[in-house]
Every structure is written in structure tokens, then in C-alpha cells.
Design goal:
Layout lengths: L1 E4 L14 H13 L5 E4 L12 H15 L7 E4 L3 H9 L4 E4 L6 H9 L3 E5 L17 H19 L4 E4 L8 H9 L12 E2 L20 H13 L4 E2 L4 H16 L1
Parallel strand pairs: 1-2, 2-3, 3-4, 4-5, 5-6, 7-8
The structure holds 9-methylguanine.
9-methylguanine binds next to β5.
């Protein structure tokens, strides 16, 4: 899944694709690199990010969905927590809802089911504004499993049938939590849904001195993507599609032997 952030403030590429033309060029580049789907977002979810209005989020993403839906050849996912944004983007042809709030808003459940859209149900502790202030768990894996299983049950009860789960690397988790999740990712398989993870360029991959910026974290991202695939991830949400595809074909080759 290739990332298209139509935002001024995302942690790695904020501002680069805010203009619809640059977002479209980027989207087509990711498709050329081999993305199997695109995730379009108009609101940053980086730690500390401020929320944006429905109108602003629509203003950012609608032109991009309009230009790509039905012609780009890959399914479009809309990264949103807002039913109004999901509704409009699904109406225009997006097929997947990527909700960092795990479809916790009943409106998101209704919209996703009404459009027979697929859903990515992610775990987050708190909100992007607050999530990194001392996140704590008794048992991070058990708590995330319980949350995700509960949200999958709610989505199925609402009529959503095509569901992937995502433990939400970096969303209200310490570095230790993120590594525990990556190490024990296969323990989420019991929920019965494909697993998606998004380690791409995230700060927890940093060397302990924090000296490498987000745009320098491709080697770290490739390591995380391979570990995730080895431990059960069916999909990865990434900025660097071509490089991640190369890394993942090694996992595939290993499995064939
Ligand atoms: C929007 N967004 C940012 N990081 C993400 C992640 O790790 N997973 C999903 N599903 N969405 C994400």
C-alpha cells in the first residue's frame, strides 16, 4: 500500500503533495513502482498533529480521488476518521476505509457497510495530539488483541465483511511496545483477518541517538517490513514502494523453498 499524504504537516513528507497535481504525480509514481493499492490522506496523524475540519480534509483529498478513481488500476483507500469524508470518497470510487480510530465512530461503520467497502481497523491509544504522552499497557499484545477483536465484531455486526486489522505501530506506543508488536505480530492471526502494518520511516526505527531523520530511514523501514512479512503481515503501508517490493520478494523466495 503506497502512501499519498495530501497534507502540509505529515511527519515524513508533509507539504510535498498538498497541491493536487503533485499528489497525483506522486500517486502515479507509486503505481509505477508497483503499489497494489494507494492510501490517500488529508489529515496528518503524526504525533502532536492538530485535527482539521471536514471541509478542509475534503478540499485536500476529493480532487485526488476524482482524478484517480476508476482509471488508476489499483484500489484507493481513504485514510480518514470522519464519516463525511469517507462517504464522499467512497461515493467517488474509493474502495477501502483506513480508519486509525478502528471504526469507533458509529457513522464510520454505517458508511463503510452501506458502500460495501473494505475496512482497515487500526488500534490507537488516545488521539494523534495526545497519544505519545506516556502510553502504558499491562499487556500490550493482549490489550490490542481484545480491542481489534471487539472492533472486528462490531464491524461485522454492522455489515462490513472485508476487514484487515492493524496494531497501529507508533500510535500510543513506546519503542518497546512497537518492537514487541513486530516480534509477536503472528499472535494477531487468531482474530481471523489479514494483518496490515505501517512501520514506514517511523521514529521508533531510529538509532538510539535519534540522529537519522524520517527521510533517511529507508534501510530501517526495509528491515521492519521484512520482519513484519516474516511474522504474518499480509500488507504493508509504505512510502518507498519499489524498495519495499524488492525486500519482500526475498521473503517470497524464501517461502517457496
Ligand atoms: C494513516 N496511518 C499512518 N500510519 C498508519 C499505520 O501504521 N497504519 C494505518 N492503517 N494507517 C496509518
Amino acid at each position: 500500500m503506497g502512501i499519498v499524504n495530501v497534507t502540509p504537516d505529515s511527519f515524513s513528507d508533509g507539504g510535498r503533495y498538498l497541491n493536487p497535481d503533485s499528489a497525483l504525480t506522486h500517486a502515479w509514481n507509486l503505481i509505477g513502482e508497483g503499489a497494489d493499492m494507494l492510501d490517500l490522506g488529508g489529515e496528518s496523524s503524526r504525533p502532536g498533529a492538530d485535527p482539521v475540519s471536514v471541509e478542509e480534509e475534503l478540499r485536500r483529498v476529493v480532487p485526488v480521488v476524482q482524478a484517480l478513481a476508476g482509471v488508476c488500476g489499483v484500489p484507493l483507500s481513504i485514510d480518514t476518521t470522519k464519516p463525511e469524508v469517507a462517504e464522499e470518497c467512497l461515493r467517488l470510487g474509493a474502495r477501502i476505509v483506513n480508519d486509525i480510530n478502528g471504526l469507533s465512530d458509529p457513522g464510520m461503520l454505517r458508511v463503510t457497510a452501506r458502500h460495501a467497502a473494505a475496512a482497515i481497523i487500526m488500534h490507537m491509544r488516545g488521539t494523534p495530539k495526545t497519544m505519545q504522552s506516556a502510553p502504558a499497557y499491562q499487556d500490550v499484545i493482549a490489550e490490542l488483541q481484545a480491542f481489534l477483536a471487539g472492533r472486528v465484531a462490531a464491524a461485522q455486526a454492522a455489515g462490513v465483511t472485508d476487514i484487515a486489522i492493524d496494531p497501529g505501530l507508533g500510535f500510543g506506543k513506546t519503542t518497546a511496545h512497537n518492537y514487541e508488536i513486530l516480534r509477536r505480530l503472528d499472535e494477531f492471526r487468531g482474530i481471523g483477518c489479514p494483518i496490515l502494518v505501517g512501520p514506514s520511516r517511523k521514529a521508533f526505527l531510529n538509532a538510539s541517538d535519534g540522529s537519522r531523520g524520517a527521510s533517511e530511514r529507508l534501510p530501517e523501514t526495509l528491515a521492519a517490513v521484512v520482519i513484519a512479512a516474516m511474522n504474518g503481515a499480509a500488507m504493508v503501508r509504505v512510502h518507498d514502494v519499489a524498495a519495499c517490493r524488492c525486500a519482500l520478494q526475498v521473503v517470497r523466495a524464501l517461502r517457496r523453498r
